[in-house]
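Dear Dr. H.,

I hope your travels went smoothly. While you were away I took the liberty of generating a structure for the chain from your last submission, since the lab meeting agenda had it listed for discussion. I wanted you to have the full record in hand beforehand rather than looking at slides cold. The sequence, exactly as received, is reproduced here:
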Amino acid sequence: MDRTPLAHLPTPLERADRLGAALGFDDGRLWVKRDDCTGLAGGGNKARKLEYLCADALAQGCDVLVTGGGRQSNHVRMTAAAANRLGLAATLVLSSNEPSHPTGNVVLDYLLGADLVWVGDRDYYGCEAAIDETCERLAAEGRRPYRMPIGGASPVGAMGYVAAADEVSAQLAASGAIVDVVVVADGSGGTHAGLVAGLGDHRRVLGVDVGTRPDLDEQVPAKATEVATLAGRAAPTGVVWLDHDRFGDGYGAPTPACREALDLAARYEGLVLDPVYTGKAMAGLVAARRDDRIAADATTVFLHTGGLPALFAAAYADWIRG
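The corresponding predicted structure, in token form, is as follows:
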């Protein structure tokens, strides 16, 4: 498929030996894939997806990108940036009431100048419905909207992580290693699905549910098969591997395990994670190593998907300080 270059690629793949030793990994077995370094308004995994999604939007002659997510959505922030790079408009649906004092990603949403549509507290599929309604309104106004699901989790968007799987494999091969498992935060499931399609086996990707989408167990394998077909690859083998025990009271809710994960990454590797996605993904990795679901000698790659702006949301300030 066509792609529109937006990301700084390839992103670094770094050894995390001090953190690995603290978690009981054999030397040289824990790595971090730095997709927080993709550029594009602060970086993150969505840049890879947007390369394919925006190419598709341009090919269809669309003039406005439409997507949505939660108040602190990284995908929303990066979609606004991609639209600006390409001379398109962006209309972004946020499942929240407009805050009186913007913090975190919302500050960047305003800076980037996107049209923000605040739809109040909605669940995952309620927000998807609001994206549909917004596309219908824009079309009625004579615009040509390009609809993206939450997180860019379409087969087209997930193609970015088929390419990322190949990138990781090539980088490890240069060090004489083969990836055994990639650990990734699971919000809408598109990144997980793309990685599985690229690596060819569900057991090589551990997705850590962050409480966004209620049907990941069905959606990830279905999407992985669709993406593999789109990429011209064989359907993935194995059974989807998901950890549903890390999101606490819900999406974005602080947990003690997430705080431990943030502290471990920061204090052993100087690696800054966020409390919504990567902190919970690292908590999943920590738990999987401690109970031997990930073996000490397994070459393990933690996918750092970005999300730093959320760390500066007002809701987390006292939690981090405390």
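Two observations you may find useful: The longest strand covers residues 64-69. The chain has a mean pLDDT of 97.

With kind regards,
E. W.
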